[in-house]
Each structure stands twice: as C-alpha cells, then as structure tokens.
C-alpha cells in the first residue's frame, strides 16, 4: 500500500517525478484525457441546459480499473496534470471517475519539473479550480456544437467526411483571403536612383539613395521622371549638406511564449508547429541525461507570458557574468500583453548550468536544436543591449537630395549569443560611411537608376499564420498547432515550399461557409469568443449562459441555411476532356487527395481519371501544353505533355511566354532528385556512425560505473 499516489498525464513525466519523491510514493500516468464527449453523436443535451454527456474513452477500461485500484490503496491522491485549463479538466474528470470528493481532492501544479518545484507543490495542494474547468468545457462544447451543426452542410453540398470548425474555418479564411489579395493584386511601377560617391580623402566609396527636392520627399513612378532628374543633375557637384551622428541601441527579444517559440523554430530550424510542440513536450516532461538521470529541461511550453521567476533571473545573471562579464548583464523585466492569461512563466531552461553543448550527447538532434534555441533566447533576454554608432548623411546636387545611412556595431551585447529573426529580414549588417565634413565635395562615380514594381502581400507560412492568429486574438497557445495541423490534414490548404496555399477544396468550403455562416466564420466573432472563455476562467461569466447566448441565434441560422440550400445543387466545373467511354465532357471533382476527373453520367458511366493541371504558356521547346506536377514534398515542377516520348522539357521554373529553354542554365528535376538521394544516403551513414559512437560511450560509462 502506497502512502501517496500521484497521477500525471504521461509516462515520461511520471518517470521524471518519481526520482524526486522517496518513501511509499507511486506515480502513474492517465495517458491524457480519460473522459470526453462521444464521437458518434453531438453529446451535448441542448434541452437540459447544455449538459455535456461525457463517456469513458474507448480502450481505456483497463487503465481506469488500474487507476481506481491504485487510488483505493493510497492514503492520499494528488492530481498533478498539466498547469493549464486542459490539465485542470483532466484532473476534474479523474476526480469524478476515481470518486474523490471535493474536500479530499489534492490538486498540484508546477511550471517546471524540478525537485524544488515538485516538492513545493506537494506541500501546497489546492482544490480543483472549477472556473478553469468550466472555461475548458465551454470551449469543448461550443466547438462540438459548431462542428456538428455546420459540417453536415458540407457533406450535402461538397462531399462526406469534411469538417467545419470555429477556429480552423477562420484560419482557412485568412489563407484564402490572402490568396485572393495576391491574385487581384495590380503591380505599380516605381524607381529608385542610387549614387556611388567617393570621399577623396579616405579613398572610400559609399552609396546614397535619391530622396527628393528642396527637402521634400519625391516618389518616382516612370522612366521619364528618372531621365528628367538625371538630366538636371548631370553636371552638378555633390556636396555634403548635413551629417547627423548618434548612437542606437538594439534590445534583446523577451523569453519565448508558445507562439514566438513556434515562429522562431519554424524560421531558424525549419520545424513544423506539430514537431516543435512534440519536441518541447519531451524536453518539459524529462530527458535521460548521462550521470544525472531523467531531467525536465524546460518550463511548461504552453504559455502566453514572458514573465520569469526571480530564481531564474539570478541564475541567468550568474551565468552571464561568469561567461561574458559584468557589462554584458542587464536585469530586464518584460511586459506581458494585456489579454495574456499569464498563468505561467515564459519558456526557459530549468537549470542554467545545463548548457546545450554539455548535454548534446544525451539529446536527439531535434531536442538539442530546440533546447539550444530556448536556452540562448532566455539567456540573451537578460543581457545588455547591442550598441551601434550611427551616421545619417544628406548629399545635395543642386536642389536635389540623396541620403545615406550607416551604422557600425561597437558593442555586441546580447547579440554575442542570440539574434531574433523575422520573416522579412535576417541580422542587421554593418554599413560604414567614411568620416565626412559639411560642405565637403564628394565625387560622383556612378548613378544607377533601378526599376521596381510593388509586390503583393506574401503568402502565409506556419510562422506568420501563428503570428496573425495571435495578433487577431484567434485561439490560444494550446490551439495554434492542432488548428494548422487539422486544416493541412483535411487538405483545405497545402504547403508549397514553406508557404500555405489554399486548395480548390479549401476555397469551395470557405466560400460555402462564409456565405452562409458569416456571423460565425469571422475574425471578430472568434476573438470575442476567446475573450469570453477568459472571462469564464476568471469566474466573471457562467459557461452555460455563454453557450445559450450563442446557441439560440446560431440554431436559427443553421435551420435557415439548410432550407435555403435544400434545392441548391453544387455547380460542377466542366473540363475540356471528353470521357473516352461515353463521350460526355468530364467534370472536375474533389476527393481525399485533391482534384480528379469523373464522368457526369455516373452511375451509368463510372469512368474517372487523374486531373492534370496545365498552364497557359506553351512548351518553350516544342510548343505543346505544359503540365504542372508535384514532387512528394508538394513542390511544383513543369513538364511538357510530350515528355518523354518526343520532348525532354522539364523545369523547376515556370516558363514565360517567348522564353527559350536553356537546360544548361538550370538544375533539372532529375538532377535534384539524384542529389537529394545522395544527401539522404550520407545523412543515414552519418546518423548510423553517431549512434555507434554514442553506444560505445554508453557502454564505456556503464563499465566505469560497475567497476
């Protein structure tokens, strides 16, 4: 009989906690949720005040029996599930199934799985926070109602098996709306003029960009305007009119939140959101470190706070001062956004002395990469600013002005360790301007006019979509990854390189939902609902009242849509391909794997074939149609329809009208495939070699410990 039983979600977390607690303590895992709404029906009794009809999850019968047996044998049962709304709900369901009364319920939470944090939590148990449970129930019930009521509309009008969701449908809408912006974008011409100027004293050149005339900024929109300016300054002297010297500080980014961790892991490491969260979970729950045992390496990874504890702050100071010197340390506090839950700290390493390099051999390559990113980001957040010397120079050519800006890094500060990247730019470069004097003449060496065109907004990547969802208040840290994973799995969107592109199926589903459920599938409504969940979590609103307020108008809207669409048939897109069996023109349909061609005479004629996409530019080599195909990794390439019979045209680059194909100037699709195959073989050999080396190290350390 154990004195105390601790229930957590996962075996990895259980193994890490076991070593901190001596005596007759048993630690077991619930393997996530043990009760949920049924899959086969709505599972919400709308007639009885939206009471959820929870059932035990199928396949968990033996686990529940085992948990009941352990709970009965223990003097105290601690529910130590994750410290968020989902974890609180799991604890609440466990208490119900194990028949633990409210007075006997011992709920414990810790933001990091360390000996100090775990022992402190066990000494200070609390009751289950019903407000947090209700916030989770509200989300679960509302999402179930929306999905179960809207999805059948898609089944009737598009195809069975499709799903609609409150957050996922808004995410798809953002991606479709962005695609439409790109498609309807009209580029506008503009010009810049760059002057290469020589300082005769130092014999150094620098570049200045055209600014305007008589201190007023000018925009140049045509070659004619450029020619007029060049004509006016053709024989003019270039005189230094103004010099401004200064100092600029660049401050470090705050510790990671879930969102910023996902964005940086995507940009710096190329991780998907799903991979980032899986690797972070393993680092949080515990990794077996040589000579230390199982260690939880980071704090809880679902958070929207940048706050850090005083203990962590002291540990960071000690590390920075010892490794870099006193002048590299700065005690920093970061403001958490107004709408953040702020229930946990930012994401940081649990032990400052466990440097990434020192434990690299105990981690998988992915664990090492993410741990290193989290470690460096946190340490940098407590370091001094980088300092630049800046110089802004105005050069006059008669009435016209050119401007040059330079900066030189004089103190690296936090940039010694870590620099945040963004979608648009990488690290800042040093641009040095020679020492100049006002009224000094500089020699014009070259004037370089450059034509450019405005560009459409970029497609979303996983990183930029997470940023947009967070900025617009859609979802919360725990929902970003499953939302994007779901819409990829449903094939509403697909990845082209790193870009998220809506599929035809995604466009059709989005059109149907936004036209008929516009009040639900919109950014403002989704953000408002998230705020209401927060109100419930704080005890300021009752969850069933919130659901009722939503449900009554929503139910009427569903009934209205079903009536309006009852006699509406989805118009199918007719292709230019005749059915070889019956002669009808085949129609484009959407299946699980995208578009395909089907005979409209079904069921009399069941002919179907793959859909081949073509472009409106002829083959640069033979003039036939060019097909668009995809690699296994969803990258587009272009191939002549006569390849390989009579034409060998194949290219990564989309052909342009009138352009002649020169196969010597580009790597062919086949060459790249061969190169990737070679790289994969090398990587496999390298991994095998590393594994062998690690195995030898482990055997040697075991022999050493035995002796």
What does this structure look like?
By secondary structure, this protein is α+β, with helices and mostly antiparallel strands. 37% of the residues lie in helices and 21% in strands. Helix 6 packs across helix 13, helix 8 crosses helix 11 and helix 8 packs antiparallel against helix 12. The longest helix has 38 residues.
What are the salient characteristics of this protein?
six-stranded antiparallel β-barrel; 707 residues; four-stranded parallel β-sheet
Total helical segments: 17
How much of the polypeptide forms β-strand, as a percent range?
Answer: 15-25%
Please state the structural category: alpha+beta
What share of residues is helical? 25-40%
Domain Toprim: 3-113
Biased composition (Basic residues): 675-707
Region (Disordered): 655-707
Keywords: DNA-binding, Isomerase, Magnesium, Metal-binding, Topoisomerase, Zinc, Zinc-finger
Give a short summary of the structure.
The chain has 707 residues and is α+β, with helices and mostly antiparallel strands. It is built from 17 helices and 27 strands. The longest helix has 38 residues, at 669-706.
């Amino acid at each position: 009989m154990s004195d105390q039983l601790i229930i957590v979600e996962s075996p990895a977390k259980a193994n890490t906690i076991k070593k901190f607690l001596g005596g007759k303590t048993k630690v077991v895992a619930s393997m996530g949720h043990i009760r949920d709404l049924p899959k086969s029906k709505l599972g919400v009794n709308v007639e009885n005040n939206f009471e959820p009809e929870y059932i035990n999850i199928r396949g968990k019968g033996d686990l529940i029996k085992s948990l009941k047996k352990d709970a009965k044998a223990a003097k105290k049962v601690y529910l130590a599930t994750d410290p968020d709304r989902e974890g609180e709900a799991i604890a609440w369901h466990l208490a119900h199934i194990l028949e633990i009364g409210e007075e006997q319920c011992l709920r414990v939470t810790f933001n990091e799985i360390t000996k100090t944090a775990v022992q402190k939590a066990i000494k200070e148990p609390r009751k289950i926070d019903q407000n947090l449970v209700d916030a989770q129930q509200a989300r679960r019930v509302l999402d179930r109602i929306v999905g179960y009521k809207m999805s059948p509309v898609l089944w009737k009008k598009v195809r069975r098996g499709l799903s609609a969701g409150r957050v996922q449908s808004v995410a798809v809408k953002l991606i479709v709306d962005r695609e439409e912006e790109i498609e309807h974008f009209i580029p506008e011409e503009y010009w810049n003029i760059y002057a290469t100027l020589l300082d005769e004293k130092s014999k150094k050149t620098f570049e200045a960009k055209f600014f305007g005339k008589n201190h007023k900024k000018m925009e140049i929109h045509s070659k004619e305007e450029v020619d007029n300016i060049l004509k006016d300054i053709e024989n003019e002297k270039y005189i230094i009119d103004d010099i401004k010297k200064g100092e600029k500080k660049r401050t470090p980014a705050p510790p990671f939140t879930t969102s910023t961790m996902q964005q940086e892991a995507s940009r710096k490491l190329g991780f998907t959101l799903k991979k980032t969260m899986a690797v972070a979970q393993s680092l949080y729950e515990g990794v077996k470190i040589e000579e230390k045992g199982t260690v939880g390496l980071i704090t809880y990874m679902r958070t929207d706070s940048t706050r850090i504890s005083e203990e962590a702050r002291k540990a960071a100071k000690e590390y920075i001062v010892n490794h870099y010197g006193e002048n590299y340390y700065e005690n920093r506090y970061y403001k958490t956004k107004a709408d953040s839950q702020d229930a946990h700290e930012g994401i940081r390493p649990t032990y400052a002395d466990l440097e990434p390099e020192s434990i690299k051999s105990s981690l998988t390559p992915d664990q090492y990469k993410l741990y290193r990113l989290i470690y460096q980001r946190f340490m940098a957040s407590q370091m001094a600013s980088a300092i630049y010397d800046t110089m802004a120079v105005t050069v006059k050519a008669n009435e016209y002005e050119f401007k040059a800006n330079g900066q030189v890094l004089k103190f690296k500060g936090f940039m010694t360790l870590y620099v945040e990247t963004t979608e648009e730019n990488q690290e800042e470069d040093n641009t040095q301007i020679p020492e100049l004097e006002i009224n000094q003449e500089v020699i014009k060496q070259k004037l370089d006019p450059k034509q450019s065109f405005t560009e459409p907004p970029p497609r979303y990547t996983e990183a930029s979509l997470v940023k947009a969802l967070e900025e617009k208040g859609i979802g919360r840290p725990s929902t970003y990854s499953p939302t994007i994973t779901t819409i990829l799995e449903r094939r509403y969107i697909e990845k082209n390189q790193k870009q998220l592109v809506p599929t035809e199926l995604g466009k059709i589903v989005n059109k149907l939902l936004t036209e008929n459920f516009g009040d639900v599938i919109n950014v403002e409504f989704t953000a408002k609902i998230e705020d209401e969940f927060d109100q419930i979590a704080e005890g300021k609103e009752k969850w069933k009242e919130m659901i009722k307020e939503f449900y009554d108008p929503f139910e009427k809207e569903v009934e209205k849509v079903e009536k309006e669409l009852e006699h509406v048939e989805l118009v199918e897109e007719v292709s230019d391909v005749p059915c070889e069996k019956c002669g009808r023109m085949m129609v484009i349909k959407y299946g699980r794997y995208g578009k395909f061609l089907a005979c409209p005479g079904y069921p009399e004629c069941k002919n179907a074939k793959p859909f081949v996409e073509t472009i409106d530019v002829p083959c640069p080599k033979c003039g036939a149609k060019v097909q668009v195909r995809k690699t296994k990794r969803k990258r587009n390439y272009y191939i002549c329809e006569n390849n390989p019979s009579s034409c060998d045209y194949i290219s990564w680059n989309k052909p342009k009208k009138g352009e002649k194909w020169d196969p010597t100037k580009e790597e062919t699709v086949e060459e790249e495939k061969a190169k990737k195959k070679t790289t994969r073989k090398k990587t496999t050999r390298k991994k095998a070699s590393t594994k062998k080396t690690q195995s030898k190290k482990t055997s040697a350390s075991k022999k050493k410990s035995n002796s």
